[in-house]
Predict the 3D structure of the following.
Amino acid sequence: RKEVEQDPGPFNVPEGATVAFNCTYSNSASQSFFWYRQDCRKEPKLLMSVYSSGNEDGRFTAQLNRASQYISLLIRDSKLSDSATYLCVVNDGTSYGKLTFGQGTILTVHP
Amino acid sequence: SAVISQKPSRDICQRGTSLTIQCQVDSQVTMMFWYRQQPGQSLTLIATANQGSEATYESGFVIDKFPISRPNLTFSTLTVSNMSPEDSSIYLCSVTPAPGTGELFFGEGSRLTVL
């Protein structure tokens, strides 16, 4: 089993749609969780951290379910500029905090 | 935040040769990392570059194949030695200004093609 698993997609949605991505992780000791965004032929960039109580940043909402070892990202009112690969990232629970990246979910938003 | 410059940005190399990738950061950072992203895949950590000591390699990666230097807190190099086509990949340098927070800043990557 992969340490971090994501549905690779691709997800093709129209502008204005709501889309959700899921991610599961295998290391129960993981303490920190993140969503990164990677545009085509670009480096990954941090989109948002994921907190236990869930958190929102504009049109983006992240949720964490520790019991199920499951993380989600919801994007509301999709924009063309949201087209990218979304990477689920989990640390290994140590103070050093090695990060493990999921394979990414490809999102394409079309007019 | 941190600004990271990597070079070369891309290269095409012959089998059996070696290539050294440089990573320069605009501020002093304790931890620097080298990742690999193979075509259609996610990122895999190669090693952590430690200033003043040997790099710490992840499972599946060895120093003879991927020697790393870290002469100071703003610079590191990764060498891909005795290359084969399987080494064709994007190699990314990254830093974390705050270890353990999960916030990584990446260089733009070095896209390597081995013929």
Observations:
- Chain B touches chain A at residues 41-45, 92, 99-104, 106-109 (CB under 8 Å).
- Residues 14 and 115 of chain B are 5 Å apart (CA to CA).
- DSSP finds no helices and eleven strands in chain B.
